[in-house]
Amino acid sequence: MNQAALSQYQSISVQSGITDATPHQMVAMLFDGALDRVSSAKGSIARNEAGRKGELLGSAIAIVDGIRASLDYEKGGEIAANLGSLYDYIERRLLEANVKSDVAILDEVSSLLKELKAGWESIPHDIRKASL
Q1: Cβ atoms 113, 98 nearer than 8 A
Q2: Which of the 8 DSSP states describes residue 33?
Q3: Do 132 and 95 form a contact (C-beta atoms < 8 A)?
Q4: What are the structural domains, with CATH classification, of the chain?
Q5: What are 39-87's pLDDT values in tens digits?
Q6: Rounded Cα gap, residues 57 and 94, in angstroms
Q7: How many CB atoms lie within 10 A of CB 109?
Q8: Which residues in 1-17 are b (16+ Cβ under 10 Å) and which e?
């Protein structure tokens, strides 16, 4: 499959996934998107593609910011505040990784995002429905 066709297929796949997704699933998709961009940025660093690395990390920062913006500080209290601080830390580390082209920082961020995603996905289904 050529690159243009693959890109179009992925776009359609993502769009149909969003259409059918619950709010909980959409946040999980955001985590996947951030992880994908961080992983791709690591490849861009290895290939010395500074421009592409910057685009990917900028996109990852925007995604993490979107996740942070979805926090309900009123209902979430201290947990939401702590998550907000963690998302802020992740964004700052992504900026630093971009400036320094530091793969170790991206590994740290990937680890944090994977842990956050696992926690998100472990929320029981009855609680997911109650929060909507």
Answers
A1: no
A2: H
A3: no
A4: 22-130 (1.20.120.340)
A5: 999 999 999 999 999 999 999 999 999 999 999 999 999 999 999 999 9
A6: 6
A7: 24
A8: eeeeeeeeeeeeeeeee
